[in-house]
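Tutorial handout. Part one gives the primary structure; part two gives the three-dimensional structure as tokens.
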Amino acid sequence: MTLQETIKGQVKEAMLAKDTVKLGVVRGLLAGMTNELVKLERTPQDILSDEEVLAVIRRAVKQRKDSIEQFIGGGRPELAEDEKVELAVLEKYLPQMMSEEEVVAFAKAKMAEMGAVDKAKAGQFMGVLMKDLKGKADGDVVKKVVDLLLN
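Part two.
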């Protein structure tokens, strides 16, 4: 069963459980998947690959994180709490991300492989790491690690 089919099945589960938050999140994901299919010039009845579904989920996660930041900055913590609850539901669909320690170990190994990396090449090093860690590590964690190692 694909990830898209799993998420479709969870609409019914959320309805039966009367879980309005999860229902809203899952419906939003399904709408995002339909939009992705249209963008890829496929019919809405087609099935996305798991990688394409994960891209839709990552975009939704990024939107929630941005909203949380904006609401907190705007002095609306009650709205930020709603977004945090939705974010928790979305993150259940994503694969487990690498911890900061794992990213540090990977980055050190990559530095040894590439040779001398200094602050001037931080952007290039970051690009190489993100290419290798795509979908495995959060970009903010990778940036933090790069800054830590090159300072």
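Part three, for discussion. The radius of gyration is 19 Å. The first helix runs from residue 3 to 16.
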